[in-house]
């Protein structure tokens, strides 16, 4: 049994977030609380953590029972099926992060009158937020990857309400491993009978960066370039899917590359503390389907590889297989295997960098622009090596 649970007195005030490494910020505890005793507060790094009002809490422990990070993870018993897929429609493929797995899987749900609970970028507040999409035009706004932790808010409650009001329809919930697991735990604790009304889909995740760091970065860009951000992309395919371009548009015409932010992102300092201990960076997931980029497809199957993108689909359950069978006609499909598809975040969590504390100390004491300059720029020798590498690879 998890040590945390075994040591917790049955009727004491639950300890939800004294250890930041054990809280993924999925909002499940906040959503399940029958007395609304839990609020989500931002810490100094800009991540949300639950805070319990002890005067309102009735010590029912529903929050602990719903926390997917504080319980033992039991792997599924079904064999995982592995596929590489590319959407057959070129326009859809080009406008998707990889092979358009998200679009293909969600299309069938929408066509049957269902809905999609997913994250899309809110340009007013400059962060991705979860919404319920019931039309393809709205769903299309959720395409692409945003390297920022999404704001969940009341989406679990809204999705549950949608399920209640649409008993003959299906909901597809898609998020990172922790977000999808959080929603599954929420539904299990509300009423297990509703599990068969939801398709649980998670994405292969590198880690969740600080929303606060990102929004301050956006403010910095808008101030520096004298305009509002009107478009964000982290995986534009102008140079091919294997070399994605990250950029924003200021106004209608001015494009700004996000090289400093991307470098900091891949240095891993801005990730949530729980990401370095993520239990969902493996093949044993309690979801129906996992999707992501099929990195390395050009080596294991060069003929299937496309510069426009290729998705990896891992099917964990019979329910996931049923959904995939309904949608596979829109894809070019290659039957793959686990050995061929493995990538770092299917094997282990992203490693915590040794200089993480120094980075956040610099950020707190010296500000955003200082850390952008210190951590967001390549040294001269690194730039030279990269140019040489590209000359020989082109």
From TrEMBL:
Occurrences of domain 4Fe-4S ferredoxin-type (ranges): 14-43, 48-79
Protein origin, superkingdom: Bacteria
Coiled-coil regions listed in the entry: none
Output the Gene Ontology terms for molecular function: iron-sulfur cluster binding; metal ion binding
Tell me one Pfam family matched here: FrhB_FdhB_C
Does the record's keyword annotation contain Cytoplasm? Answer: no
Keyword set for this entry? Iron, Iron-sulfur, Metal-binding
Protein name listed in UniProt: 4Fe-4S ferredoxin-type domain-containing protein
Species of origin: Acetivibrio mesophilus
């Amino acid at each position: 049994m998890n040590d945390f649970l075994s040591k917790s007195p049955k009727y004491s005030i639950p300890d939800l977030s004294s250890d930041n490494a054990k809280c993924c910020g999925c909002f499940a505890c906040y959503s399940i609380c029958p007395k609304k005793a839990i609020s989500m507060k931002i810490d100094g790094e800009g991540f949300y953590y639950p805070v319990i009002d002890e005067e309102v809490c009735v010590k029912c422990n529903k929050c602990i029972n719903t926390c997917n990070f504080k319980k033992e993870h039991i792997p599924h018993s079904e064999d995982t099926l592995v596929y590489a897929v590319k959407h057959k429609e070129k326009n859809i493929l080009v406008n998707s992060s990889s092979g358009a797995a998200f679009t293909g899987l969600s299309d069938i749900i929408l066509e049957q009158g269902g809905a999609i609970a997913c994250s899309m970028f809110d340009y007013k507040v400059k962060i991705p937020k979860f919404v319920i999409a019931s039309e393809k035009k709205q769903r299309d706004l959720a395409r692409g990857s945003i390297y920022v932790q999404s704001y969940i808010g009341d989406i679990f409650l809204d999705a549950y309400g949608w399920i209640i009001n649409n008993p003959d329809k299906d909901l597809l919930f898609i998020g990172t491993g922790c977000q999808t697991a959080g929603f599954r735990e929420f539904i299990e604790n509300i009423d297990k009978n509703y599990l068969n009304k939801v398709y649980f889909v998670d994405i292969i995740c590198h880690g969740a960066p600080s929303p606060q760091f990102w929004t301050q970065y956006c403010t910095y860009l808008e101030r520096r370039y004298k305009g509002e951000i009107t478009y964000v992309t982290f995986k534009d395919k102008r140079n091919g899917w294997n070399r994605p371009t990250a950029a924003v548009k200021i106004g209608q015409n001015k494009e700004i590359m996000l090289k400093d932010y991307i470098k900091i992102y891949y240095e891993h300092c801005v990730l949530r503390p729980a990401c370095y201990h993520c239990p969902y960076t493996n093949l044993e997931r309690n979801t129906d389907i996992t999707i992501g980029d099929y990195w390395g497809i050009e080596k294991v199957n060069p003929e299937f590889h496309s510069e426009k993108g290729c998705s990896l689909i891992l099917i964990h359950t019979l329910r996931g297989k049923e959904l995939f069978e309904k949608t596979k006609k829109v894809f070019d499909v290659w039957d793959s295997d686990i050995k061929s598809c493995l990538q770092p975040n299917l094997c282990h969590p992203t490693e915590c960098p040794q200089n993480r504390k120094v980075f956040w100390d610099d950020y707190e004491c010296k500000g955003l622009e200082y850390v952008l300059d210190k951590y967001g720029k390549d040294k001269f020798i690194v730039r030279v090596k990269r140019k040489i590498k590209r000359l020989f690879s082109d």
